[in-house]
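Hi there. Long-time user, first ticket. I'm pasting a complex I've been working with (about 755 residues overall). I'd like to know whether the download I got is complete or cut off, because the file seemed smaller than I expected. Thanks.
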Amino acid sequence: MPPRRIVPKRIPMAEQAPEVRIHNYDEVPLGFTAEQAIAEAARCLQDARPSCMAGCPVNINIPGFLHLVEIGDFRGAINLIKETNALPAITGRVCPQESQCEGLCVLCKKYEPVSIGQLERFAADWEAEQGELPVPDLPPATGKKVAVVGSGPAGLTAAADLARLGHAVTIFEALHEAGGVLIYGIPEFRLPKAIVKREVEYVCSLGVQIQKDFLVGSSATVDELLEEYDAVFLGTGAGLPWFLGIPGENLGGVYSANEYLTRANLMKAYRFPEYDTPIARGRRVITIGAGNTAMDSARTALRIGAEDSIVVYRRSRAEMPARAEEIHHAEQEGVQFHLLTTPLAFYGENGRLTELECLQNELGEPDSSGRRRPIPIPGSNFRIPCDVAIVAVGQSPSPIIAKTTADLATAKSGVVVVDKETMKTSKKGVFAAGDVITGGATVILAMGQAKIAAKAIHAYLQSGNW
Amino acid sequence: MYPILKKQILSEQVKLVVVEAPIVAHKAQPGQFVIVRVDERAERIPLTIADFDRDAGTITLIFQEVGKSTKQMGLLEVGDAFENIAGPLGHRTEIENYGTVVMVGGGVGIAPLFPITRALKEAGNHVISIIGARSCPLLFWEDRMAEVSDELILCTDDGSAGRKAVVTVPLQEILESRPEVKRVWAIGPGVMMKYTAATTKPFNIPTLVSLNTIMIDGTGMCGGCRVVLNGGARFVCVDGPEFDAHQVDWELLLQRLSFYRAEEKESLERWEAHRCNLDRAYETLTSVR
Ligand SMILES: Cc1cc2nc3c(=O)[nH]c(=O)nc-3n(C[C@H](O)[C@H](O)[C@H](O)COP(=O)(O)OP(=O)(O)OC[C@H]3O[C@@H](n4cnc5c(N)ncnc54)[C@H](O)[C@@H]3O)c2cc1C
Ligand SMILES: Cc1cc2nc3c(=O)[nH]c(=O)nc-3n(C[C@H](O)[C@H](O)[C@H](O)COP(=O)(O)OP(=O)(O)OC[C@H]3O[C@@H](n4cnc5c(N)ncnc54)[C@H](O)[C@@H]3O)c2cc1C
Ligand code: SF4
Ligand code: SF4
Ligand code: FES
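Hi, the file is complete. Here it is re-exported in full:
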């Protein structure tokens, strides 16, 4: 192949204008046209030893699929992606590309990296436009039954892989809709729910049953599932919201991000009263934290009608853990950032939130996580008036399953302990992957681990050896 | 879908439905609850499992029509179905032979009190029950409560049935005259539970209440149902719903319960207006025919 010409800048992505989109719930980036996708894919240098691939947790053949997009073979491109990634329409939209594939693209050193995520999304959306996905030929039934607990990315991936190997799979989901965080957490304007529903339907078309309204640990224990199923896979995520433990946190108007986003997304409170579930329509909304969850909350607040949406974060901008694109979109939409600011206490009147008291910090030496530690400046206290506050400072696995399963080992943080090679837990026949073994992480990591688990479950079901 | 097999009108505002929900029926224990959703657009509403039949695979739910969701539920008839019923959720009541116990039920709280009372009676306790409501038409299950109690005291605020008193009045008398009382359970409106707690506190009698906070998921993932007990926050759906009444921060609980008052009103008014329109449209249709 002749050496390729460097095109320094990306093909810009069309987006809804910020002043328009804060009044609707529709997706923000509009996606590439075929011409734009071909031109963007042509920016790839087709390196013989592509550094980008090392950044992808599921090792997608990135130059391979980019080449197929470039020559207009979109079917070939999506097939190649799907060899290692079952949910490209989702990961193309939500992966933190800047710290994964795109972050390692050689172009990064001097220019803008190839828009790998957007091209992955393009290929997946192109396939969806072609109509229903054909159901692959399934092998003869093995007669083995697997219970998958949780229908997030981990559960869906494990269920699909196991069904394709001929096992009878039932997913048990506590909520009334399948999809995990993809349904209840990440908002429509970032990940349209129709995409998640399509993936869930695809998994069902493989013969997977979904039993909703079923809380494992309460509707049945893991031990009871093991009486009926040959193996159990735990993909229960990290659903327990953390609070700050500061005064006033139980005032009306102080939400966990999980509650705020569940009301808005799963229950569609943004369409109240057309949908029954209410949400406080705050005029000044403060979100505490700076991860994806926080950005989603702050941007949802704008769409629900907040005049001011303010992010309070104790470190500086460089440490904000959210995807770069989300921070950028939040800024465009007018979300205000109070950085190096620690919340101290909530104040209210008649049980309703009215103010948040904060302390200003300065940056100190790096801490154990390598990030510079925020050091409070004495006497710098100040108050921000607000009527809604959303606490988005992290989450850990819910203890329900661990509490009701005697021999399932968990770490102090509440995560289920597994052998990373096989995703086996301490309990015979039980495997786990996703946020339940890592704490809050990413969609692509949950999927990658679920694939390892599915392989190990298959081996276990065939050999019977633990 | 979870079909309704039987419906009974217990009072103007209180309805009973028997619903097919085999998974819940199989595991249900006294004190536990379910989360129901009437249809696609509905809220997730917590309701106590008032009774269950494992063989038939059914559970009994009793609800008071207080707002849009419960009024809409009240319109469901035999043959209709709930879109979702998840559970059983929450901890079961710890049933033991404590000796003499007093069961206090207010209004619709009589329903969740029943299976606990029955289990305590079966465990050998001497059961004194006090049930009350604003007025006679709102009382129900006097007969069933009588069957599982050794003594039953009825009261109404207006004296239209039983004693004219609030439930804490006979409770106070019993506590003063009968030192053998070992435990008290109280289920009903927040204010009633708050005053029950205040009544038993000076006697230092362990008192359990089943809290009816606002919930969404009911599985411990949102924290919307949190209450404060002796300074620490707990999630009612997974840590409760039963708690030591003397530790509950009642002021905060009642404030949190009223947080969505404006939205609840808006939702109900919109729905009722919509229903009127539907009724009118239906009348026009039928008169044309
Ligand atoms: C608001 C938000 C935004 C995010 N944004 C991004 C992003 O942009 N990019 C990214 O890569 N990652 C993002 N993440 C993280 C990502 O969503 C998670 O890492 C991923 O969803 C984990 O998948 P999982 O399958 O392990 O768990 P989950 O998606 O959490 O799914 C777990 C499922 O199990 C169910 N469940 C739990 N307990 C039980 C039980 N006992 N019985 C039955 N069912 C049970 C739950 O209801 C849930 O449906 C975000 C997370 C949040 C909360
Ligand atoms: C564990 C538990 C068990 C319950 N068991 C029963 C029962 O057996 N029978 C019964 O009649 N009621 C029960 N309740 C209360 C019942 O859930 C509420 O009455 C119902 O949600 C009101 O909905 P609505 O739309 O009709 O009224 P709304 O107009 O929404 O509200 C009216 C009142 O109900 C309260 N409320 C509103 N939404 C909720 C919600 N999601 N969860 C709880 N309370 C809410 C409000 O604070 C308000 O005081 C229980 C509640 C809990 C937490
Ligand atoms: S799956 Fe994620 S990390 Fe891998 S190539 Fe796609 S966007 Fe990049
Ligand atoms: S590192 Fe960048 S330029 Fe090289 S193959 Fe990967 S995407 Fe293409
Ligand atoms: S209802 Fe969400 S945590 Fe209890």
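A couple of notes from our side: Chain A has a mean pLDDT of 93. Chain A is about 30% helix and 15% strand.
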